[in-house]
């Protein structure tokens, strides 16, 4: 992953290059993504819940397009940069890592907004992989990916999928989740991981008794949302955003609304986690401000689907279903 962290930044560097997209235009791209992709899931709520089904066409932002705002438009080279950001990374013709997801633009500044890549990527190559503090992103080549793959410094590459047999055989359980608006770690990397675990075990049906994966529409990296999406379900590292004295999901301290309590019930009572209910508040980090929205999170590959009746901001108006992409 960390070589990709450097690679994706190079798409938008150096800032003087005509291909580079100024950070102030990230919001323009985000707004057009919402405009085109929001309603793909059947509900216009400002949340991109089905980015894989959206046929995004950003040519409307081209500076030659009569509809474009001349002070907030993209050149042909900049549109090519956007395509690279969304696109999967192939190193020497082989798949290396997926690109950022449509809907993640509000957090692009972290990896794409600086004058150099994030130190998460460069530091990995300098100090873990190459032991060369003088190495910089300008020295980057695709060979870095395969050197990291071969040497695996720190033994941190998670590709020995069969080793998870110990989890299954030990009656342990795994709940994995990923925010779909995450722009620090590409969301589709979790899809790839889960799919490869499934392949190693004979299909997704072989995982359902011990390993379930939940996508969280509108949630950024670990916590928070730029689009008022239900994002909170007492996941790892999220409670501290609400305060150091917060327990569970305030006002909803049960296994339906709390991932840890749900995991405990799965292990201790044998109750599968068929859904989690995510919450956001009027002030998204102040529960006392009142609930704004709640919505179920569904085990992959199911998706939260509006029932067609009822308030779209309450969980009971939604069901978990598998969509036919055709």
TrEMBL record:
Record has Chloroplast as a keyword: no
Keyword terms: Disulfide bond, Hydrolase, Serine esterase, Signal
Give the Enzyme Commission number: 3.1.1.-
Q: Which domain of life is it from?
A: Eukaryota
Keyword Transmembrane applies: no
A Pfam match is: Tannase
Q: Please give the Gene Ontology molecular function terms for this protein.
A: carboxylic ester hydrolase activity
Write down the top EC class of this protein: hydrolase
Q: Where is the signal peptide?
A: none
Q: Which family does it belong to?
A: Belongs to the tannase family.
Name the chain's protein.
Answer: Carboxylic ester hydrolase
Annotated organism of origin: Phaeoacremonium minimum (strain UCR-PA7)
Top-down, what is the taxonomic lineage of the species of origin?
Eukaryota, Fungi, Dikarya, Ascomycota, Pezizomycotina
């Amino acid at each position: 992953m960390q070589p990709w962290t450097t690679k994706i930044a190079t798409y938008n560097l150096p800032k003087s290059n005509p291909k580079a997209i100024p950070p102030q235009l990230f919001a323009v791209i985000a707004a057009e993504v919402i405009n085109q992709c929001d309603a793909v899931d059947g509900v216009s709520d400002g949340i991109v819940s089905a980015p894989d089904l959206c046929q995004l066409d950003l040519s409307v932002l081209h500076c030659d397009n009569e509809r474009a705002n001349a002070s907030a438009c993209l050149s042909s080279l900049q549109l090519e940069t956007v395509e690279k950001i969304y696109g999967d990374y192939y190193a020497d013709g082989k798949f290396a890592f997926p690109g950022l997801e449509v809907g993640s633009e509000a957090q692009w500044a972290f990896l794409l907004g600086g004058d150099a890549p994030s130190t998460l990527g460069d530091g990995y190559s300098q100090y873990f992989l190459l032991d060369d503090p003088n190495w910089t992103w300008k020295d980057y080549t695709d060979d870095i990916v395969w050197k990291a793959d071969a040497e695996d410094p720190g033994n941190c590459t998670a590709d020995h999928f069969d080793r998870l047999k110990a989890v299954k055989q030990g009656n342990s359980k795994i709940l994995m989740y990923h925010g779909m608006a995450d722009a620090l770690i590409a969301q589709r990397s979790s899809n790839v991981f889960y799919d490869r675990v499934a392949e190693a075990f004979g299909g997704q049906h072989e995982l359902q008794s011990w390993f379930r994966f939940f996508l969280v529409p509108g949630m950024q990296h670990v916590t928070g949302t730029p689009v008022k999406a239900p994002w909170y379900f007492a996941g790892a590292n999220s409670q501290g955003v609400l305060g150091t004295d917060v327990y569970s999901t305030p006002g909803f301290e049960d296994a339906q609304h709390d991932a840890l309590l749900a995991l405990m019930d799965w292990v201790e009572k044998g109750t599968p986690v068929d859904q989690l209910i995510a919450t956001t508040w009027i002030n998204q980090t102040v529960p006392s401000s009142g609930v704004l929205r709640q919505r179920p999170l569904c085990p992959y590959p199911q998706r939260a689907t509006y029932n067609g009746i009822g308030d779209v901001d309450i969980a009971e108006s939604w069901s978990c279903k598998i969509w036919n992409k055709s």
